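Why should sequence recovery work at all? Because a backbone constrains its sequence more than one might expect. Tight turns favour small or flexible residues, buried strands favour hydrophobic ones, and helices have their own preferences. The token representation captures these environments compactly. In the example below, the structure is given first.
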């Protein structure tokens, strides 16, 4: 019986396997680190070690799944966000790096205005935004909503695992749970579904076939949930409150108009991301 390969040999096989399927070969490294539960120097020092049968079998299975375009984060059950590891599964959208810019902007602007704010994260998904804000701003009171009970379960697990201060999770559609609880917040943030249905159909299989459609598809023009948020904003955002919305890079003017129609006295702006694309709409009452 042939013995399992050394780590570097397994990586060479996996890289070639993924390249043949037009997938990034560096994914092999992420999967191997997950199998070995090693990273950094400890992982590098292990490259010439031989895998055992269990490790080799697990690695081959993971690589095969990714070869069928299943996202690495769902295979490993983990995604990185703001320097922390979050549990993810197919019930929640995989946190994106660009959303870290949203968190940074909130902390930068809101800390100049509030000391102990009430913050609400609408459509929280994995809880990445809510949990990060709770950990980065310990004086804040954080609320989070999602229409998916499964997503709320994942978000609660992440809050517990990362030892976030108490976060109130509410199941329900967008800001409706806040209105039902008579909650008025100082800071409202949302990264809602914003992909138009026609664009969702054209997404890469890696996204379209695995990530939850209800966390991506926002109807015919992609603005459905921004309309809901705009209508709720006057009732849930405090008079001196701030709101932050992640957007698709072509949606800025339309989202600004929706917010200005509901809050004509507010200051509404578009903020570009690190790549110079429209990424965030801010509302200042």
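From this structural description, the recovered sequence reads:
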């Amino acid at each position: 019986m042939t013995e399992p390969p050394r780590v570097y040999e397994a990586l060479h096989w996996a890289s070639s396997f993924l390249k043949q399927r037009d997938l990034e070969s560096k994914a092999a490294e992420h999967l191997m680190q997950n199998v070995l539960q090693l990273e950094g120097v400890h992982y590098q020092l292990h490259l010439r070690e031989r895998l055992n049968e269990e490790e080799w079998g697990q690695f081959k299975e993971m690589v095969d799944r990714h070869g069928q375009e299943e996202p690495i984060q769902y295979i490993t059950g983990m995604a990185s966000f703001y320097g922390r590891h979050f549990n993810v599964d197919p019930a929640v959208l995989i946190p994106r790096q660009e959303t870290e810019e949203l968190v940074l902007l909130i902390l930068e602007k809101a800390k100049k205005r509030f000391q102990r704010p009430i913050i609400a994260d609408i459509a929280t998904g994995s809880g990445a935004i809510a949990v990060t804000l709770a950990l980065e701003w310990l004086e804040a009171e954080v609320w989070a909503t999602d229409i998916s009970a499964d997503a709320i379960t994942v978000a609660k697990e992440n809050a517990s695992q990362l030892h976030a201060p108490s976060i109130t999770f509410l199941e329900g559609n967008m800001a409706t749970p806040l209105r039902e609880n008579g909650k008025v917040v100082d800071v409202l943030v949302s990264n809602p579904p914003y992909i138009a249905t026609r664009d969702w159909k054209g997404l890469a299989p890696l996204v379209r076939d695995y990530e939850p459609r209800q966390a991506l598809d926002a109807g015919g023009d992609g603005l459905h949930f921004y309309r809901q948020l705009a209508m709720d904003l006057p009732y849930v955002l405090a008079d001196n409150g701030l709101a932050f919305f992640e957007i698709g890079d072509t949606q800025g003017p339309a989202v600004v108009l929706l917010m200005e129609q509901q809050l004509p006295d507010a200051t509404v702006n578009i903020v570009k991301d690190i790549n110079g694309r429209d990424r965030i709409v801010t509302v200042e009452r």
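A few observations help interpret the result. Strands lie at 78-81, 84-87, 118-122, 141-146, 167-171, 185-190, 237-246, 267-272, 278-284.
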